Amino acid sequence: MSVRVSSEWLNSCSGCEISIIDMGERLLDVLQVADIVHIPALVDSKYFGPLGDGKHLTLPEADVGLISGGIRNEEHLEVALEMRKKCNLIIALGTCATHGGIPALANSWTPGEMMERVFTTETTDQPAAYPAEGVPPLLESCYAVDEKIKVDIYLPGCPPHPDQVFNALIALVQGKPLSVSNKSVCDTCPTVRKGKGELKQVRRFLQAPHYQAPDEPLDQMRCLLEQGLLCMGPVTHAGCGGDAVTPRCISARVPCRGCSGPVRHEGNQLLDMLNALASNGIDLKSIPNRPLLLRFSGAHSLLKPAIHERRSS
Amino acid sequence: MTQAITIQPITRIEGHASIKIWLDDAGNYQDARVNYMSLRGFEKFVEGKPAEELPDIVCRICGICPWMHHLASNKAVDRCFGVTPTPAGHKLRELMQTIAHAEDKLLHFYFLAAPDFVIGPDADYAVRNVVGIAKANPELATQVVKMRYLVKMILDKFSRKTIHPIAGVPGGFSKPMLEEERQDILGKMRQVLDFALFTIDFAKKNVFPKYLDAIKTLGVITTGFIGTVDENGAHNLYDGRIRLMKADGSYVDFDVQNYADYLGEHVEPWSYGKFPYARTWNEGFALDVDHPKGIYRANTLARINVADRMATPRAQAELEEFRSLFGRPAQATLLYHYARLIEEVYACERAIEILEDPEITDPNVRAKVEPQAGRGVGCVEAPRGTLIHDYSTDANGLITRANLIVGTTHNLGPINLSVKQAARALIHDGQVTEGILNRIEMAVRAYDP
After folding, report:
1. Is ipTM > 0.90 here?
2. Every domain of chain B and the residues it spans
């Protein structure tokens, strides 16, 4: 049985598409069962036909539509609506699609404020007007895909691990349900937790965390949050390590920054993290920048133009 | 009535762009443009963030070359905070960057560019892609997929996360390299070097000769070039001085901290992407195919043009052969593909050199940093060109201002010129075919935007 797959990238970086390629040889297995009808990174299928003379943006029909990236401009919106129309099932691929991702940090400012900075940097010859010919107008905000169209399956991750993409595609081909985990990064982290940390201040990530030897296994290293680092593990969806499970950043001795978004789709990483820190008696004033707790999940109106004005005190 | 053709999206590239071509009543070329459609606003939304967090934010500018943004950002923050990375930290960063280059060039050559050359520019679009290659030449395709995966997983396994990396940190690197890791990666990179040599040989024998006519004509423009060189004028991807060369081969070298004295960014009303140009030439900016002003190019061809030599032996031998055929600076746009494969050889040789340096396993990988007010410009050569991150911080080490010139953007002007040139040369009397439109896109793909 062959499944038609269509893929689009919106306000994104192409990391999700590279993660698809990072399935390695499994990609060749996927190509045996999937017929890729549209993916701009790899296949020459055009919105306005092969001769570029079509009048309307048109995408091919498909069983499965993968959408990476949030929705930031009118073209993204048009493509998302067309994908919804032509695909039986829509997968929001990656945290930009599920929760806005890093580009939704821009939601702390208006589109006008953003344009003003971009087109007045010290090397830029300031234009009389911002670009507006042949480029899609910006929307007010950077939206997650489900704020504009119905989404059937969420695959967060920045990017999703190739194992997750592979497992999802194979399950769809075989008509099996997808198992969705409600675990947090902490639930899958092997580091040593002793209960409450001794520190009352959040420590910025300016020096290495404490561990004994370069090859010390993770299950002997003290939890980074208990070492005072702002590790987002408690409020972040698990799965970044793929089938191997171990959280990626922590295994590099680096705190989790929350890149897979909230544990439950509708969760709020900022509020959940403030709660977690407060219950451990940590002084919330020591957080250097609160909007950064929504580093990957600022869509769904969680980051707004006024928020950056509010100081962390 | 004029006729408009829209090629959208430009495919088998790594960003969001479209081509618009206008024909006159007789169906001949009138004008063409490449619109860059994406505006995300990184220069704005990093404001107020702790500088040490930026390397993990700005890597999201590009999922194909996240290591480049990650490391340019780390260098900029090092300078803002007045810290020098430990020697091992510095070397691990360069190692990751060099291996990332090796992976990127394989991806571009085989997955994005090769369909035009192996399947053919006029082939049905349904097979003119990597899937078509897999069906036409399964043996090669399997080897390519395996080899690219091997390189990518070196980065993934050692650094733990390669899209988007987290292991570079202000002051150095987050984890040391163990001796068994060094041995393992060294063995693998020797395999990749063999494959790089196979690839350039394969291309020189089977690909480039078939397309010599296209190389001499398609998208050909005359411009200056930019790239990084070391203290001896040799090609370097990770560190050095910036060399800005005019079309006549004369050049200036400068410290990247002073980049704003040399480069400017022009804005056109029809593109969110800004157009960097050589402000220091004092000729302004003009997208005129026959008389361009201020236009220079970046990326592979530019780097091997500005360099006096390659710093590793096999890459140097390849450069000598290339120069004997095409001179210096070489201007033909499709030669970007050839230059890319020379750099692939360099990247593998350089990675092996770094891995053979005993200091690479020194556990002292990270110097402690303290936030402070400062300014720093960090630069590396990204696969797509000279990448500049320029930050200022306040006394708490929070970002007050950021200016970015991203590798690809140096080529936005040149890509426009190459598309205009190709459309003017290929479209006559209203004859527009899929093959012609794909050839126009090939002029874009050479730049790997």
Report:
1. yes
2. 85-218+334-365
